[in-house]
Write a structure and sequence with these properties.
Elements: H1 6-20, H2 25-29, H3 38-49, H4 53-110, H5 116-130, H6 132-150, H7 153-165, H8 169-190, H9 195-202, H10 209-223, H11 228-235, H12 240-252, H13 255-311
Helix pairs in contact: 3-4, 4-5, 4-8, 4-13, 5-13, 7-8, 8-9, 8-13, 10-11, 11-12, 12-13
Length: about 300
Amino acid sequence: DQSTRAATKRMLSQVRERVREGSSLADALTPHRDTFSDLYIGMVRAGEQAAALEAVLDRLAEYSERQSEFVTKVRGAMTYPIIMMCVGTAIMAFLVVYVVPQVATIFEQQHAALPIATRILIGFSALITGYWIPLLLLLVGLVAGISAALATPRGRRVYDTALLKMWYIGPTMIRIICARFARTLATLLASGVQLLPALDAVKGVVTNGLLKDAVEQSRESIREGKGMGQTLAQSGLFPPLLIEMIRVGERSGELERMLERVADNYEREVAHSLSQMTTVLEPLMTLAMAAVIVFMMLAVLMPIFQLNQLMQ
């Protein structure tokens, strides 16, 4: 009754009817995987089996709120640079496609000697306006080729490897993934899910293929009797803080609490890192846009000044 969306009302009505017919809540949620993730359904199932559904749902609510807040911070930090890039591109496209060709026609009629900046701008405008179809096809083909390459295991592995090695972006991505990994695993363990099934479920929140393979290898090593901290350290991909906190949690029997603490720490670090990045990007992008626009304006105005002097 609280839902305002018709599709959500229908979905929840179907869940209610299946529960009334005798299905468990997890089984009733299973047909709606587009709304409820495998992680969510698995935790509900574990809560029903352990007779602790209320506690599990409470943890799921807290987990969802934290994840939503974390994602909102990341998106908010990237909003301004993206808007600046789009606005700058639109301004440049308007000048190059509409303004410059008209100015170039005037200069050609006057047979004036043009400065080098003006010739560069007119040549670039002619390239864009005269060959926009081949350039567009080239761009579409490039995007399609990259997408096809990323769809293959080899291509995806190359991309994941390159992403982790990128300056500043790589460490930030590792912190984001480790924060989600630690938060999700802590929530699963605190809800009564055993470590091996929890590690299998938590792979869904690890978006980088290299880190996901390391989690899977850790799961197999734990099955053989080794500690999770030891096996994750062997990959050389996870930060030392996460490894050490896991080891401390395994020795003290407080793995869930240690994972929660490390998740809190990484989320704070990511928020601070993104704040620093946007603080630097904003003036840099503003200066870059200003430099491009000043160059284009000078390239247009300098010949006009020359024409005025000739006429005088």
